[in-house]
Amino acid sequence: MGIGNIFQVFQPKDKIFFVLFEKVTENLVAMSNDFNQGLQDFDLNDDSMLKKMSDYEHKNDEITHEIFVELGKNFITPFDREDIHELASGLDDIADYIYSSAKYIYLYKSPQQKAYTEFSLLIQKACVEIQHAFQNMKGFKNMKQVKEACIKINSIENIADDLLSNSMAELFETHDAINIIKVSSVLNYLEIVTDKAEDVANAIENILIKYA
Amino acid sequence: MGIGNIFQVFQPKDKIFFVLFEKVTENLVAMSNDFNQGLQDFDLNDDSMLKKMSDYEHKNDEITHEIFVELGKNFITPFDREDIHELASGLDDIADYIYSSAKYIYLYKSPQQKAYTEFSLLIQKACVEIQHAFQNMKGFKNMKQVKEACIKINSIENIADDLLSNSMAELFETHDAINIIKVSSVLNYLEIVTDKAEDVANAIENILIKYA
Amino acid sequence: MGIGNIFQVFQPKDKIFFVLFEKVTENLVAMSNDFNQGLQDFDLNDDSMLKKMSDYEHKNDEITHEIFVELGKNFITPFDREDIHELASGLDDIADYIYSSAKYIYLYKSPQQKAYTEFSLLIQKACVEIQHAFQNMKGFKNMKQVKEACIKINSIENIADDLLSNSMAELFETHDAINIIKVSSVLNYLEIVTDKAEDVANAIENILIKYA
């Protein structure tokens, strides 16, 4: 038995959830980085960014499934089973909507909009804050940092709200109805990503209220 | 006292919820069958399909109300009261959005789209799987079948996602902005039905996690 | 120590939540009154209504924050902590979507639509019923009145549903794609307000089921 295995034997059973959430949030941070980078260097004829997003989305699905399997096996969980379910589903929604945003950007062949990269930067920041929140939840030690991350995510969502309305106002100046329908649809998917990040932050705050 | 009454006296109190959920899911299966049939033989001048959908929707409301009344009367429930509330609300949402889809198809006089019937077939399959899941939940005996039904509903939702994006791409090829707004609105309602079916599947999986 | 302070000392700790919910619902009633009035006397060149909506929205945020702070401090709550969190979030959503509706009405410079004021009247009625529900929840004494208020909110949401579809049918008669996109977007925000009111009513009914 190697050192790694010994460690695993003595590891409290409920740590597995923190390990899995760390994997999910790491995946989301990498996904949002590549999404943002892909939009900055956008090339409609090169769909490698879309393929990457699809891969990240599948990986997220797999880890989410692992979390649900562990929920079925473990009696001891760091917090209520429903809360773990809600967190995992919320993180999965974030990956789903980043992927949907990418899909419709390619599908509608909508030209690279400044607003798209502005949104992807906000999404990247939100994913980094979500990672911070989960890193600091381990052992319920750094609750202040968790709370600060949640506040930042809420403020990112407010900025995204304003970005959406300002982008829509600019978009209508094109007076091109079909283009307006396409771009507004992508902008709405992008804005939902930040809504889903806020949902995760709210679920975390709900857990803090119960256990703090 | 007739045999029916004797049976009811000895029936465990919590069976009433399975009986009512069986009624709801039976209603949903019939509704989705008639919706699919109605779209296949679509005739804008004959609104009997829309009237049927309205009737099914009202019937669903009534059984949902019965479930809530029973929740208020019964101390013993087969699973948490909140879970029963969530399941009943989720099933009610499915009926609501099928009805809304039908309503906007007639309202917008949007020509019969191939995508509409493709969606209605997916919706019908999802409703049949929901019925399977509830039939197998009785007594918590056939948990494997319940889980399989939930997996199928999730996979139907994925297919519906792709159907939506492919249909949107085709729709934009018409270059008719007003038609695009109308049809995309109906497609979105149809896609929400499969989202709501997935929500019910997730609520069921959540219950499995708690009780399995 | 003044009489006010003595009173506060002897006041059961959990009354603070009813006091705070009374503040939120009072704010929502005033907000919906001014929204309705502002739409009746609508003047695109005078954005004082929009500023008022922004102020009400901020005030709602502050009281919601107070509720969350109290949740963190109080061991004793009148009902489950998660339920208080859900109610506070639901009421916050109502204020958010009224503000969003106002914002997009000004942003899109969309002419005053009859449907807008019809919606704002429904929203005002829903907010009054929400206030009634909370006033009657104190001490769990007037449960019948709470239930009646919830039923009225549900029926307002049904009326709003029909208002939306009728307004959309009229809107398409303008045959002006860009105008249709703008107005339908505002109508959707307005309809979401009544959906959020229904969510609050459902959360209240859920609490009644647990405690009645």
TrEMBL record, chains A, B, C:
Superkingdom field: Bacteria
Pfam family name, one: PhoU_div
InterPro entries: PhoU-like_sf, Put_Phosphate_transp_reg, UPF0111_domain
Entry similarity comment: Belongs to the UPF0111 family.
PANTHER family named among the record's database cross-references: UPF0111 PROTEIN YKAA (PTHR37298:SF1)
The protein's name in its UniProt record: DUF47 family protein
Phylogenetic placement of the source organism: Bacteria, Pseudomonadati, Bacteroidota, Flavobacteriia, Flavobacteriales
